[in-house]
Amino acid sequence: MAEYIYIVNKDTLIVKPPKKSPMFLRMIALLFAMVCGVLICSIRLKQLSTSSKINFRNIRVIQIPDIDYGIKQIEIPHDNGTKQSEIPPVNYPKPQTFSRAECAHNPVQFFAIISMQRSGSGWFETLLNSHSNVSSNGEIFSVFDRRKNISSIINTLDKVYNLDWFTSASKNECSAAVGLKWMLNQGLMEYHEEIVEYFNRRGVSAIFLFRRNLLRRLVSVLANSYDRYAKLLNGTHKAHVHSHTEAETLSSYKPVINSTSLISDLKEVEVTANKALKYFNSTRHIILYYEDLVMNRTKLNDVLDFLRLPQMELRSRQVKIHTGSLSEHIKNWDDINRTLNRTVYESFLRD
Q1: Is residue 116 domain-resident?
Q2: Which of 3, 8, 43, 164 is 20 to 30 A from 316 in CA distance terms?
Q3: 8 A C-beta contact, residue 321 and residue 249
Q4: 21 lies in a domain?
Q5: Both 34 and 105 in a single domain?
């Protein structure tokens, strides 16, 4: 095909290339489409051959404790198995002291409230016991003979979880969840390996309850210790009260806190709590904080879900003793303020 030459003037020469044939362009487009089609078909065939080798597995949703004190759902395959800490076994206790009668076929969840003194565990337990299907039997291991060795501990636990332990909280044959309150300094840390094995074997779920503000806890510990001897309420010691008048009477005592050992004391409490969480990490557990429960009662719904219980409104008659600013409850407040100011525990002063 000839080129077209244009002479605009004697100094300018413009050469235009010849036009390509439309048929040639169509052939290129067709060839490109064919190549793409072959590539797509080959990729699809590889995918089909690979998928034929995959074994489809059944998936189910389970509930496990979340780090933010709640319950989260995850999907796991059936054939992977599930840890005992994730799904508690179904328990059908057979008490020796009575018959469960028509409730014999109703499963019972086992639990233990693990805490420290003056961390809100008494209040929390009364909330649980207000549920018509829960029996939490109190601080059983406060009696030394029940925790003097691991055999005593196991025998006591067996009685509780076989429904053969009777307290005012016992709902006997129709209990859907049964447990107790257990402080860290009552043999729990000393025999933690044996207790963890027992929890996992019998499907006992651990409910950890701690306080965020350890300075407030210390005030409560010292005030309660003082009242054991002072007995401010008409010559009677009460660790928990049910009226604001009684609460005001007990809170009138302002303890003097040792500012020299304060930071090391707070650190020791933190270390102990962290050890407990580490020791019982393999158990099915949930972590709660007293302040969170007070500020947001809906977190109690997470506890009921954790225990696989029907939702109910939980109530307690207990009244908080130390309310308001901490400066109103510590006699040597200025010393404590100077000691904790600009430390990792500074937030305790304002919380």
Answers
A1: yes
A2: 164
A3: no
A4: yes
A5: no
Q: Is residue 79 part of a domain?
A: no
> How many whole angstroms separate alpha carbon 330 and alpha carbon 227?
15
Last residue of some domain: 44, 59, 76? Answer: 44
Residue found under tokens 């600009």: 342
Do residues 213 and 119 make contact, with C-beta atoms less than 8 angstroms apart? no
Q: Are residues 8 and 128 in the same domain?
A: no
What are the b/e assignments for 79-108, b being 16+ CB within 10 Å?
eeeeebbeebeebebebeeeebeebeeeeb
Positive or negative torsion for Cα 164, 167, 173, 175:
negative
Handedness of CA 277, 278, 283, 286 (dihedral sign): positive
- Identify whether residues 36 and 150 lie together within a single domain: no
CATH number of residue 237's parent domain: 3.40.50
Q: Could you tell me if residue 336 is inside a domain?
A: no
Residues 118 and 214 reside in one and the same domain: yes
Residues 148 and 22 in one domain: no
Residue 235 gets the label, from left (phi > 0), alpha (psi -120 to 50) or beta, of left
Q: Which domain holds residue 29?
A: 4-44
316 and 175 in a common domain: yes
DSSP SS3 for 90: coil
Report d(CA 137, CA 271) in Å as an integer: 28
d(CA 125, CA 137): 9
State how far Cα 265 lies from the chain centre. Answer: 25
In tens digits, what is the pLDDT along the chain, a chain of 351 residues?
444 444 444 454 444 455 555 666 677 767 777 777 766 766 655 554 444 433 333 333 333 333 333 333 333 333 333 333 456 678 999 888 888 888 888 999 999 999 999 999 999 999 999 999 999 999 999 999 999 999 999 999 999 999 999 877 777 678 899 999 999 999 999 999 999 999 999 999 999 999 999 999 999 999 999 999 999 999 999 999 999 999 999 999 999 999 999 999 999 999 999 999 999 999 999 999 999 999 998 999 999 999 999 999 999 999 999 999 999 999 999 999 999 999 999 999 987
Q: Kindly state the tokens that stand for 152.
A: 């005593």
Residues 167 and 40 in one domain: no
